[in-house]
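Annotated sample (chain length 66).
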Amino acid sequence: MAVLKVIEVLSNSNVSWEDAARNAVKHAGKSVKNIRSVYIEDQSAIVNDNDITEFRVNVKITFEVN
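Output written by the structure step:
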């Protein structure tokens, strides 16, 4: 039986929501091992001069605890 833990991470990107999610996993992976999945809980964006300038995601990252 595996023991799983979930952490919540906020991340951003100037490119896309997908890139923001990838950034969250990459950054969490520096200190958390055995990441199994990511759940996008919320998405938002910053708008300047009628253009989206920053994509933000709130993700839940699930990983296996040894």
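Annotation: The CA atoms of residues 33 and 63 lie 7 Å apart.
Annotation: The chain has one domain: 3-65.
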